[in-house]
Amino acid sequence: MTAARAYVPDRVETPRMPAAPAQPLPPRACDTHCHVFGPYDRFPLWHPSSYAAPDAPATRYLRMLDTLGAARGVLVQPAPYGTHPDALLDALAQGGDRLRGIAVADPSVSDAQLRALCDGGVRGLRFVEARDPAGNLFPGSVGFDQVAALAPRMKHHGLHAQLWAPCDTYLRHLPALAKLDLPLVIDHLGSLVPARGDQDPAFQLLRGLLADGRLWMKLTLCRVGSAPDYENARFLHDAFVAANPDQVLWGSDWPFVRMGESAPSADALVAVAQRWLGDDAMRRKVWVDNPARLYGFD
Q1: Where are the alpha helices (DSSP H) in 14-126?
Q2: CATH of region 28-295
Q3: Where are the stretches annotated Disordered (predicted)?
């Protein structure tokens, strides 16, 4: 296999920026799922990307949070950076205590490197089981089969595992992963397919593990529901909130890679969540209390 080499992308897209939400977020609200890319002269990519690289450096990301009214944020390292955390750590340093990070590492990572990630604000590692038609992991990803090898050291350092995969993949992997005594966070509403309804085995598995307190769920709508109102995914959102309101999180997914002109505005996603969560107590739980507990915000 050819070793990864850093490169500056030929084409860069400017991500959609939000307006201020009509109904403000609660104080200390957290957007738990965003990504930073660049500046590419300082932080080039390391792996081929299936999407146009966004012009989404830390400065633009922090402006996005400020406009949205989110006092806190969690950055997730995207696959084109592989296991190179420089862009992530630089953004975390710029944001100070308002930010936390999710990095990518494989079992070759040293304890010193894990300590450095934690010291820099990282609170979890991301594992991806999305594959191309040939069965290969997306370049730069670390698969679910690596979680068990890293789990003891992750527990020692207080790190959780963030998981992203097509929904049916969880049926094969989650029963074993849930036995590792490691906090698990599921991306993007489990990548469920709303048309399958509430009898979908993947939905039932995820809801059951969430209800048992064995995983956390990100209520990230934009890749599951249909814009602009996302009503076809509401039953998934509401079922997860009802199953365990103490272990659900909200994330926008800015800068909405792969979505192009169909990318939503983050303030529109906030408006949907404001309506669906229903009352201020639940909004505080999802936007403030739950992320503070998982990511260690003061």
Answers
A1: 58-68, 86-95, 111-119
A2: 3.20.20.140
A3: 1-24
